[in-house]
Automatic annotation (TrEMBL):
Phylogenetic placement of the source organism: Bacteria, Pseudomonadati, Campylobacterota, Epsilonproteobacteria, Campylobacterales
Protein known as: Two-component system response regulator
Keyword list, A-Z: DNA-binding, Phosphoprotein, Two-component regulatory system
Ranges for domain Response regulatory: 45-160
Organism: Malaciobacter marinus
This protein's record includes keyword DNA damage: no
UniProt key word Phosphoprotein: yes
PROSITE patterns to which the protein is assigned, alphabetical: OMPR_PHOB, RESPONSE_REGULATORY
Length: 272
């Protein structure tokens, strides 16, 4: 079974739900497969940020054989940021340890905050401190060298699939979108602020992500798998522990139920 088939099987249920919710119509399996193939066959431009040129050229050759286009190869954080500003690649594969006064972590953080382009770290560093710092740039994958070509291919396809779904409405974010919730609570999707009356509620990054995904289609329920995949990205969708803890702490902050559990499925906002 090749990596594309594995990706399709792994995400089949999730993709059916996503496409059905987007179109609000019943679709056939043939329609679904056509949409999937259109996504997978779309030309993807990748920026490689690696200061070991032999490794960079080898990766470029491997990625081109997989059907990807290479936006460029950069060896410093400064050049990587400049390249992204000028060329807007679809995804960045970033080494953490780069020459120059900026690290790959700093470059990735700036690229993510400025352009929301998905980052995949491919590095020799796997210590706890480096991994923790890397999370600030919200990478979609963290791969340790040496890495199999198949693993890189799957990481790219999975990252793009998640990114295209969760940011499909990003152009709407230029407009102010305020959702009225139960008990006089409001969630401002543009500013990412939960408030009650004149008081804003201080939320953690993951708590904000929880409200982000629930408020994307406020009247609809969102599955546990989709929520976990959005918040934790590369975590196992079968691990509910972190989500339960997040929900418990979030409810403790609020004096009213502004979202509800949908039995054995997920969560939904409680609207005013």
């Amino acid at each position: 079974m090749n990596c594309i088939h594995l990706l399709l099987l792994t995400n089949f249920k999730m993709i059916v739900s996503i496409i059905t919710n987007i179109n609000h119509i019943q679709i056939t399996i043939g329609d679904l497969m056509n949409k999937l193939m259109e996504f997978l066959q779309k030309t993807v431009e990748i920026l490689i940020v690696e200061d070991e040129m032999v490794l960079a050229i080898d990766m470029e050759s491997s990625l081109e054989e997989m059907g990807y286009e290479i936006s460029g190869i950069e060896s410093t954080a400064q050049d990587a940021i400049k390249h992204v500003n000028e060329n807007k690649p679809d995804i960045v594969i970033m080494d953490i340890n780069l020459k120059g006064y900026k690290s790959g972590l700093e470059a990735a953080k700036e690229i993510w905050q400025t352009h929301k382009i998905p980052i995949i770290f491919l590095t020799s560093y796997s210590d706890d401190l480096t991994v923790k710092k890397s999370m600030e740039s919200e990478p979609y994958a963290y791969l340790i060298k040496p890495c199999r070509e198949k693993d890189i291919d799957i990481a790219i396809k999975t990252a793009l699939h998640k990114h295209n779904y969760f940011f499909k409405n990003k152009n709407l974010m230029s407009e102010q979108i305020v959702i009225d919730l139960a008990q006089n609570y409001k969630y401002d999707r543009t500013k990412r602020v939960l408030s009650k009356g004149l008081n804003s509620i201080k939320l953690t990054g993951n708590e904000l992500k929880f409200f982000d995904i629930l408020s994307e289609n406020p009247k609809e329920s969102v599955s546990f798998e989709q929520i976990i995949s959005y918040i934790y990205r590369d975590e196992s969708v079968s691990d509910m522990g972190k989500l339960r803890t997040l929900v418990y702490r979030l409810r403790a902050k609020l004096d009213a139920e502004v979202f509800e559990n949908i039995y054995e499925f997920g969560y939904r906002l409680k609207l005013d």
